[in-house]
Amino acid sequence: MAIKYDKKWLSEWVMNKTSSTKKAAQELVDGLFDEIAKAMVKGEQVKVAGFGVFKVSRRAAREGINPRTGEKIQIPAKVAPKFRAAKQLKEAVK
Hints:
Order of helices and strands: HHEEEEEH
Strand content: 25-35%
Largest sheet: 3 strands, antiparallel
Helix content: 40-55%
Radius of gyration: 19 Å
CATH architecture of the largest domain: Irregular
CATH class of the largest domain: Few Secondary Structures
Number of domains: 2
Structural class: alpha+beta
CATH topology of the largest domain: HU Protein, Chain A
Strand order of the largest sheet: 1-2-5
Shape: elongated
Distance between the termini: 21 Å
């Protein structure tokens, strides 16, 4: 049986660890993710020691090929969120 790890689960975990209210724990978790998102919107990266780095990846426009028709198509530039796991996290998951 898979356990669902989501913001609700994380908020409950914070609430139990800090003996705070459910509302305070939810605000803390939401605030944390909001700050990470704000930093990424600015193009900054967020490093969490032992866990990883959240950053923005910019991909240039390029020419591609439609696999169905073989026709050349123009792929537009793209900005996407990216996460790179830290060495400690990679080793823990092995």
